[in-house]
Amino acid sequence: MNNMKNDFSKIKIDKSKLKLVSNRIEESEEISGVSLGYWKDSFRRLLHNKIATISLILIGFIFIFSIFITSTTPHSTVIEPQIKDPDTGQMISKKSLTSVPPRIKGLEWLGWFDGRVDKLLPKIALENEVKYPKDTYEIVECEEGNTGKEMCTIDLDVYKQNGIEQLYFTFGTDQLARDNWTRVWAGVRNSLAIGLLAAVFDIVMGVIYGSICGFYGGTKVDNIMMRFIEIYGSIPSIVLLILLLSFMDRGFGALIIALGLTGWIGVARMVRAQYLRYREHDFVLASRTIGASTKRLIFKHIFPNIIGQIVILATFSIPAAIFYEASLSFIGLGLPTDQASLGTLINNGITQRSVSAYLLWIPTIVLSIVMLAINLLANGLRDALDPRLRGR
Question: Are the C-beta atoms of residues 94 and 80 closer than 8 Å to each other?
Fold first, then answer.
């Protein structure tokens, strides 16, 4: 040990190369770096969740894109198509635009968006060259059918058959010659708007009702309000929606009110449980001691502590509202047929699936993507707003 001390004593240090930073104890105890609050830390953790971030960007892009498309499209989507021939300037007839399959410029080589369909018909029908010009189709195969007639499967170019080779419909047209591309994006816009507004309705009503129940938990007020929830909540949501809509005129507002009146019960129960948890905490008792009013205790002291859970519930409520809207539109109780939504488009696609299958699978795929993105975002928000995971 003595030898080691002697070795260190022989080391020469050039003091001119050293600099005294500080010798104050107060400065050494200061916190270095930026202090993150609850919301900043939650947002940071949400951005670290790549799946949730991609879902958030995708939802925002879909909603903005749907508004842009529906406001700038040159094609009519509600009543009658209004499309001019770019060569002659004349209006194209509705018959030529009816049930035209998808066609995308530059992607015809894929075989999916080339405006061609396989069609099975009697071989004798091909003799009608007015309806089936020879340069519009190719015979795939012919065989004798059950009735003894020779049936042929042809690869038909619908655009060439209808004389509209110069046009492109990304998602095709429906049986009323309406552009399905614009109708799908209008349906996305309306479905997202319905889901968002219904979720806001659920949250506002659920928070108010649940706050009163929770703050007065165990009293006669709470008992009466909870018995009402139990009776009201025992009715299946879809049955209640059908009953409510049967007494209202079909429309955007009626659907939002009906969805809101059936979705707030879960929010109210969650808020009540959180209020029962926080109302006996020291900070609430201290505020009550110094004379804080009931309104202030409910909305200024307890409510900020449950905002995270409310945001999560609101996010999960949006896909639920979209699902219910699609279900109601499917059975004919949603939006009117002249107002596109993903539900009405799927309902229309079901009736046309045998002749125009694209009218069914295109809005179904879009609805699946929207629902998946919102649910993944909700899962990411649930993790980001969990205080137990703060700092990770």
Answer: yes
Phi first, then psi, for residue 272 (nearest 5°) are -60, -45
DSSP 244-298: HHHTS-SSHHHHHHHHHHHHHHHHHHHHHHHHHHHTTSHHHHHHHHTT--HHHII
Closest CA to 205 of 127, 310, 343, 347: 310
Spatial separation of the C-alpha atoms in residues 183 and 250, rounded to whole Å = 19
The pair of three-digit structure tokens given for residue 172, joined into one six-digit string? 């095709």
Architecture of the domain spanning 180-389: Orthogonal Bundle (1.10)
User: Rounded to two decimals, what is the model's pTM?
Assistant: 0.77
**Annotated domain spans of the chain:** 96-162, 180-389
pLDDT tens by residue, 176-231? 888 888 889 988 988 888 888 888 888 888 888 888 888 888 788 889 988 998 88
8-39 pLDDT, tens digit each: 556 667 767 777 665 555 555 555 555 666 67
